[in-house]
Design goal:
The structure is a homodimer of 187-residue chains.
Chain A: H1 9-20, H2 26-39, E1 43-47, E2 52-58, E3 66-72, E4 80-84, E5 87-96, E6 100-102, H3 108-119, E7 123-130, E8 135-140, H4 141-149, E9 154-156, E10 165-169, E11 175-176, H5 177-185
Parallel strand pairs in A: 5-7
Antiparallel strand pairs in A: 1-4, 2-3, 4-5, 6-9, 7-8, 8-10, 10-11
Chain lengths: 187, 187
């Protein structure tokens, strides 16, 4: 793993993460992890912006365009994608306050998208955060679909280890999910 | 190349493209091309939503959330990314009404992003549409950066062929840029 402390940014990031990561939202911890991977030239993975349908925009004099009417749209893809070790990576991030994760929390179009990515040779998975026990797991889309087809309705933090790979929670990066990717996909 | 006419969608798409592609915006033609690649299981490439900073949202009774104040933000990445033949693909699309494309049309953060993707083993390029001559070219980020470092300020539709690869313009897909990718990257 090539570590490149460009511009000395690593130290600043460490400070930010140490002060912020306790009690932080799962999504923010993933975003900070991606920032860590980017700065250290490990991977380039981003959260996609939420798609918004803009209906009306005003152009006040001497200031930037102001959107005055817009609506959230449903994304046709997943939350995160990018490149790691030359490979395409795509995943959906989910969080549950319980020790069980219900499969109904993932929509069909997200599953279809991940299945398609897998068929095209990309790495596709779901990353699940069990807040109650503070544990994160990644589970490959093929395995996930097998579970759904076998009429499983949910996984618990106790039995997910049979199907997925646990990701380390730490400070820098807050969630080292790429290490879990290395193990799960042997790359 | 595996062709999968799932749900007979291909024919509908052909009709849509044939009626729409004349005089259509470059971006729309790229999006239709990506739809063609998706339906035919060739690639999964999407345009990222424009990032928007939401300042105020109202929740009218019995209707969906309405954004009443928001602003466009500058994207930190490029317009398009996805997976093709298992590889990560990332590109920025640019259009010029002239027969010359000025390098100042691409921002530094986009160049930095593409350079980073290339260093991480992904395929990174710029796709340029010369509207006057109705020609499309892809140019690899390494070559593009070499030109900029050599103090070139622009490329014309005549000399870009020395540095890039021409993409076919047709009906279905409207712009077959992945065929140009096959040639340029020998994949």
């Amino acid at each position: 793993m090539k570590i490149n402390y460009a511009n000395g940014k690593k130290n600043n990031l460490t400070t930010v993460i140490k002060t912020k990561s306790l009690g932080m939202l799962f999504e923010n911890r993933l975003n900070l992890s991606n920032e860590f991977y980017l700065i250290n030239s490990i991977a380039n993975i981003h959260k996609k912006p939420t798609p918004i349908q803009v209906v009306n925009v005003e152009y006040p004099k001497r200031s930037r365009a102001k959107i005055t009417e817009a609506y959230y749209r449903t994304a046709s893809t997943t939350d995160y994608n990018g490149v790691y070790k030359g490979k395409y990576i795509d995943f959906e991030a989910k969080e549950t306050i319980n020790t069980s994760f219900s499969f109904s929390n993932i929509s069909k179009h997200q599953l279809d998208h991940l299945k398609n990515i897998d068929q095209l040779g990309g790495i596709a998975f779901i990353i699940i955060y069990f807040r109650k026990v503070d544990e994160v797991y990644i589970i490959d889309i093929k395995k996930f679909l097998t579970l759904i087809e076998s009429d499983f309705k949910s996984v618990t933090s106790k039995n997910i280890i049979e199907y997925g790979q646990r990701a380390e929670i730490g400070y820098c990066p807050p969630i080292n999910y790429l290490k879990a990717v290395d193990i799960l996909y042997s790359i």
